[in-house]
Amino acid sequence: MENINLKVLSFSKNSQKIINGTEISENLKLQVKNEILSLKNKINRSPKLVVILVGENPASKVYVGNKQKTSLEIGIQSEIIKLDENTNQNELINIIKKLNVDANVDGILVQLPLPKQICELEILKTINPLKDVDCFHPENVGLMLIGKPRFLPCTPAGIIEMLKQKNITLEGKNVVVIGRSNIVGKPLALLLLQNNATVTICHSKTKNLEKLTQKADILIVAIGKANFLTKDMIKKNSIIIDVGINRIDNKLYGDVNFKDVFEKASFITPVPGGVGKMTIIMLMKNTVSAYKIHNKII
Ligand code: NDP
Q1: What pLDDT is attached to residue 4?
Q2: Which CATH number fits domain 43-128: 3.40.50.2000, 1.10.510.10, 3.30.300.90, 3.40.50.10860?
Q3: Which of 184, 186, 211, 247 most suits a substitution to test ligand 1, by most atoms within 8 Å of the C-beta?
Q4: What phi, psi does 227 have (nearest 5°)?
Q5: Which residues line ligand 1 (CB under 6 A)?
């Protein structure tokens, strides 16, 4: 009997370690849904998000489908424009230019990656910065850099929000980010810094990576390599955030070896059901911000 009780106790203690992105994002969804309902009374139409998908990338198709599903659940109109793999840059630019001036469209998102004949930067620069709900336009990146953000980048903002919801403070913490992409690593490091963390950014050329990761109070891994992070690389009781989404034989794996690291960590995010869920709800929040800007509510 005592053994059973001990097992139950240890299970509930252990499950509290998991930062549940699904649960946190469901609560946020309700808040955003209610905000949209009250804004609709003033504006007389729902916010609208247009997502452009070029080509047949299977992962992109799943992401776009998830974005549409969440949009519809919370009262955002959703349109997906599907374009052929061979679409050329000018065709895509012309479509974006039309959406830029369409009074019924609040947010425009071009799903990345794009086929190689199209320059990503040229496309991101074409999106009206006031409708750039992914926060990838150089103007919006610049505003974020100087601490006056119009929108927040979805994955980094989702991670900060997850930590807040778990009452994990960033001030004074040693945070190590592995990965320096424009989508995750770099903007994330910036937001962490703005939250008064001491930030170390690591990448593929970092020497003695374990020496740095072993010092982290909070370790965030965004590299795209399944099960890369193991327990020997972390400090006891550190907080582990797994951004990675790696598909192998139709199964999803994070960049963290969850089973190996679990015991040693004080908090950990799962994959799936972690950061990915937060990314989508942050996109919804940005779409509502764009809708408010568009309708001069802020
Ligand atoms: P990128 O491929 O653009 O960047 C990967 C980064 O990881 C690079 O900076 C690279 O370094 C670094 N890196 C690669 N291998 C190592 C290594 N062995 N040691 C240290 N650093 C390494 O990926 P993204 O940032 O776009 O995405 C990262 C992961 O996050 C992917 O699995 C992606 O699917 C996932 N993702 C998840 C999201 C979510 O919502 N959960 C959203 C976006 C991405 P270098 O710069 O030197 O090449």
Answers
A1: 55
A2: 3.40.50.10860
A3: 184
A4: 60, 30
A5: 155, 178-181, 183-185, 202-206, 209, 222-225, 243-246, 275-276, 279
Looking at residue 50, its amino acid is V
Give the Cβ contact number of residue 132 at 10 Å: 25
In the sheet with 48-54, reading across from the earlier edge strand, the strands are 77-83, 48-54, 107-110
Please write the tens of the pLDDT for every residue from 114-140: 999 999 999 999 999 999 999 999 999
Domain ranges of the chain: 43-128, 153-277
* CATH fold of 153-277: Rossmann fold (3.40.50)
- Whole-number Cα distances in Å, 118 to 55, 110, 113, 138, 210: 12, 12, 10, 18, 37
249 included as an active-site residue: no
Tokens of 11: 């299970």
Residues whose CB is less than 8 angstroms from the CB of residue 219 and which lie 6 or more positions away in sequence, other chains included: 175, 176, 178, 213, 229, 234, 238, 239, 240, 241
**Contact indicator for 210, 233 with CB cutoff of 8 Å:** yes
Averaged pLDDT for residues 236-254: 96
